[in-house]
């Protein structure tokens, strides 16, 4: 069942790409300096951002399933 390993690699690469495409709303220096008071502000994601958030969640679950399945098959 080596195909599961290949699927896990493909899903991992796609997960990395979707996470890298997401835009960060906060600057890291604001988090450590305390300048920004609304660090965890509720904001609706729409359009491409929403697609990338959902795709990364689905890919993360798929990666977990494929890794567990691969571990059990070997």
From TrEMBL:
Q: Membrane-spanning residues where?
A: 6-23, 51-69
Annotated membrane topology: Multi-pass membrane protein
Keyword check for Transport: yes
Q: Which residues form the signal peptide?
A: none
Provide this UniProt record's keywords sorted from A to Z.
Answer: Cell membrane, Membrane, Protein transport, Translocation, Transmembrane, Transmembrane helix, Transport
Write out the GO MF terms: protein-transporting ATPase activity
- Single GO biological process annotation from the record: protein secretion
The protein's job, in short, is: Involved in protein export. Participates in an early event of protein translocation.
**Family indicated by similarity:** Belongs to the SecG family.
What is this protein's record name?
Answer: Protein-export membrane protein SecG
Provide the taxonomic classification: Bacteria, Bacillati, Mycoplasmatota, Mollicutes, Acholeplasmatales
